[in-house]
Design brief:
Blueprint: E1 6-15, H1 19-30, E2 37-50, E3 53-66
Amino acid sequence: MSDHVYKQIELTGSSTTSIEDAVQNALTKASKTLHGMRWFEVTETRGHLEDNKLSHWQVTIKVGVTLD
């Protein structure tokens, strides 16, 4: 096994459906331009309210990307 060095990138995804979808939306979008994503860590979870009702989940994650 080789030694790895990672760069951490912070992303915030949102979803009207669930926390999991918010994470997946962030990862899916990031995968279009980032390569070598290896792990993620949820650092913050919050919701957006409209008319006193949950409108969107918002999840901030740190993503570890391996460096070449």
